[in-house]
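Dig into this one:

. . .
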Amino acid sequence: MPRKMQRFRSSLLVFTIAVAALAQTASEKPNVDVRRVGARLQCQCGCKDSVATCSMLECHFSKPAKERIAQMQSVGMSDEQIVQAFIRDYGMAVYLAPPNAFGWIIPYAAVGFGMAVILLFLRKYKRKPMTDLGAIEAEDPELAKYQEQIDQDTKNLD
């Protein structure tokens, strides 16, 4: 019986830890509106993520910023007003501009350029047929000299 009680206690402990790990505050699991505004703000903890996507545990900037965004939204401020308030407090370094057309075109242009380079390379170095090599003279004097050397070397092997 004590063994069953020990298993029950350990199972209860694991269950309690799992429930505590899943419990999150509002700033750790923000709603859609907070994430929408947070995606336009650069996290200032040193990572390259936005406030909405910062994955640093207990981030000193992201967590309070999410709470501040939620408070500003509850007062009725628009997304643009919230972003402008953050820019006023932290400078332009906090603003993340949405990707423009240039950012969408570059990856596809790079793939197209790479394919063109590969195509040109393949066309330039395409193998020529063996018939274009021309005729080889069987009685070439230089070949005869090498053939004599080969014959002498093979005689020495015996």
Remarks:
- The two ends are 89 Å apart (CA to CA).
